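Below sits my pick:
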Amino acid sequence: MSGTPPPAWTRRPANLARAVTAELVERIVRGVHAPGTSLPPEPILCETFSVSRTVVREAVKILQEKGLVQVRQGAGTMITPPSSWDMLDELVLAAAIAEDDGLTILDDLVVTRRVLESDMANVAARVADEQVIDQLRALVDRMDELVGDHVAYHEHDRAFHDTIMQASGNRIARGVVRALESQVVNTARYMGRTERSLCVASNRGHRRIYERIAAHDPDGAAEAMFTHITEAWVVRRGGSGDPVRLQR
């Protein structure tokens, strides 16, 4: 019959609660269920996804943990404003980036990364031993040879930044940066253009960072990192609006 609704799942997922949660996260972030409104009641969600009440309740509990909904006695499950959402959560961040037409979420991600990595570069310049300095030099030299192969270049690029983060000893800041980057490292909108000339310019920034760390110049290393991350992103994002959030 033409009026028959499509099935909830093309292929029924193994973990139903996780699948329902992922779908509802996307719908909330897209505004299908807007902040201040109620999530559809349990019977409707059960029918929509062809799942039991137990699955729906588990999904709602997970949404609450992510900050997307608030369960109010007598008022149902309310969608919370974006300011309450856990933006470090994998599903929430991925959905927000997918809806980020103006690149504001990616701008914020870059600013967060810039703040943390600048501080870690400052610390690394104070504590880095010869082994770390030799490793950074080897990575920079190797990247000079890889500017024509953007895939291999970016692998070494990430290793360079991670070496500095590890040298700083700040495991929490490193964990935040790695968690954020894991969401975007393979997306075209974050990686942007990949021409040889851009890799050449990028590695000049890496070399400045390396030189300041090798010279044990904390302020210089922090400034070099700040400048490198800012300039690299401005080039990658191209003409997609004015990146106000990147200003000091």
User: Anything to note?
Assistant: DSSP finds eleven helices and two strands in the chain. The longest strand covers residues 69-72. Strands lie at 69-72, 76-79. The CA atoms of residues 150 and 194 lie 6 Å apart.
